[in-house]
Design brief:
Elements: E1 2-5, H1 18-21, E2 25-29, E3 34-37, H2 46-53, E4 61-63, H3 74-80, E5 84-86, H4 91-95, H5 103-111, E6 115-117
Parallel strand pairs: 3-4, 4-5, 5-6
Antiparallel strand pairs: 1-2, 2-3
């Protein structure tokens, strides 16, 4: 397990959303595959994370940031370049409109040829090789 982001005082200067951006972002790695968990990290950390980690963000699977709405920006997800995306989101968030919708990020991940998992595909399970 590798911790990529967690609250520390350096975040105070980067974001006004400490409750979400201070979330624990980590990656679990097996011998062949990895899974990046973004928790509630939001768009405010996109530039920091892409600059700090760049291509090291690459992971086979991703738990989308902030339930798939908000969350890191497109540049971040393109660096991760996952095969599958997990939206910790109920159907109303996956199909909703406006700010409280994961549709935009779901469309992005589908455009990146990701398999999409969410509450409506449950139960979901991944075994890292």
């Amino acid at each position: 397990m590798e911790v990529l982001s967690a609250y520390d005082s350096s975040l105070d200067a980067m974001t006004n959303d400490l409750m979400n951006d201070g979330s624990l972002m980590f990656r679990l790695s097996g011998r062949e595959e990895s899974f990046l968990f973004c928790a509630d990290v939001g768009v405010g950390l996109t530039d920091f994370l892409t600059a700090a980690y760049g291509e090291k963000l690459k992971s086979d699977y991703i738990q989308m940031g902030h339930h798939g709405f908000g969350g890191p920006g497109e540049a971040f997800y393109r660096l991760v370049d996952p095969r599958a995306a997990f939206f910790d989101a109920p159907i109303w968030l996956m199909t909703g409109e406006g700010d409280r919708s994961a549709k935009e990020k779901e469309t992005l991940m589908r455009d990146m040829d990701c398999v999409i998992f969410s509450y409506y595909t449950a139960p979901n399970q991944i075994l890292l090789r």
